[in-house]
Amino acid sequence: MERRVVISGCSGGGKSTLLEALRERGFSVVDEPGRRIVREELASSGSALPWIDLAAFARAAISTAISDWEANAEFEGWVFFDRGLVDAASALEHATGDRVLDELGRSYSYHRRVFLTPPWPEIYGQDKERQHGFEAAAEEYARLLAAYPALGYEVTILPKTGVAERTDFVLRMLEADESSDV
């Protein structure tokens, strides 16, 4: 069974908070490629930023997501990814129209269940790494909500609850998946 699990969805929907809670419970977590790229680009005055050059940013995110996927290929336990390759490929398709999602999405597969954080305006916030507004975040969510099932993933929308409840929900769903695969 594939044990690389994607937590994706709307920017500002609580993904990073959920993933930090999973890390605190002892699980392996891979930080979001986009945030790492933005930090690097800001530190070096680079231009592969989503608000300057979305295509260059998406290509960098694809490369980072592939490296992350490969680096966790042999890990035995659950590995949780803050976004993944499908997110990056979807961003590149949106920016350029290049059709890369199907090929990349099928070449590097994750656990069949993907968790998406829905748009949640009450907790959404911008910062120096997330400069887009809530409307753009909701549009990205809609693209991902279509992209993952198109690649055969089972999408589970995370409830708008506290982080402990969300964490328990994710782990219960994965436990049920494991039981059904036996």
UniProtKB/TrEMBL annotation:
Domain NadR/Ttd14 AAA residue range list: 4-166
Top-level taxon: Bacteria
Pfam families (alphabetical): AAA_28
InterPro entries xref list: NadR/Ttd14_AAA_dom, P-loop_NTPase
Protein name (Swiss-Prot/TrEMBL): ATPase
Species this chain originates from: Methyloceanibacter stevinii
